[in-house]
Specification:
- The chain is 85% helix and 0% strand.
- It is mainly alpha-helical.
- The longest helix is centred in the first third of the chain and has 36 residues.
């Protein structure tokens, strides 16, 4: 009888762990579908609720950052841009090996640099894109985007008026082009 009781306890533990994992994966899949469909309003609410239960989920922080960026592009930008940066920084803090997180963080800094004309945002863009390229050196997408956006900075008259380390920008362009052409 006690052996049967131990088996039942074991089965209960396995089943509860399995159901928790199923629920977690189901929520991740829902977040992914909301990213694909562009449902940022629902995504903001869902990611926030999901993060209340799982505050260390790097993927949920990444999704919250992406949804916030979409919200910033479609509504009042100031709150959502800051929220997006903070969420992506938390995603990176929980999983600093995913180049996609650095890529989206770089996009946000690039956008904020263009929007506000802030050279510090451009420097953060350069640093984040460099990190994305270093984490996935065989993915030429990051290098091509990096090169295109840094080359685009030289065409922006607002950028040319801002103080930024031009040597850093040139080195970043040369490095990204060199890696892309290898």
């Amino acid at each position: 009888m006690s052996r049967l009781f131990l088996h039942l306890i074991f089965l209960y533990c396995v089943a509860s762990l399995h159901l928790r994992n199923f629920e977690y994966e189901n929520h991740r899949e829902q977040l992914k579908n909301m990213l694909i469909t562009g449902a940022w309003k629902q995504g903001l609410e869902f990611a926030d609720k999901f993060l209340q239960k799982n505050p260390e989920s790097h993927y949920a922080w990444y999704c919250l950052g992406r949804f916030s960026f979409e919200a910033a592009l479609n509504t009042d930008q100031s709150n959502y841009l800051k929220q997006s940066c903070n969420a992506l920084e938390k995603a990176i803090a929980y999983n600093n090996k995913n180049p996609r997180y650095y890529y989206w963080k770089a996009n946000i800094h690039h956008y904020m640099g263009m929007l506000y004309g802030n050279s510090k945002e451009y420097q953060k863009f350069l640093d984040s894109m460099q990190s994305a390229c270093e984490l996935d050196p065989m993915n030429y997408f990051y290098y091509s985007v990096f090169f295109e956006k840094t080359a685009g900075l030289f065409q922006d008259p607002r950028y040319l008026m801002r103080p930024i380390l031009r040597q850093s920008l040139v080195n970043s362009m040369v490095n990204s082009l060199d890696q892309y052409l290898r």
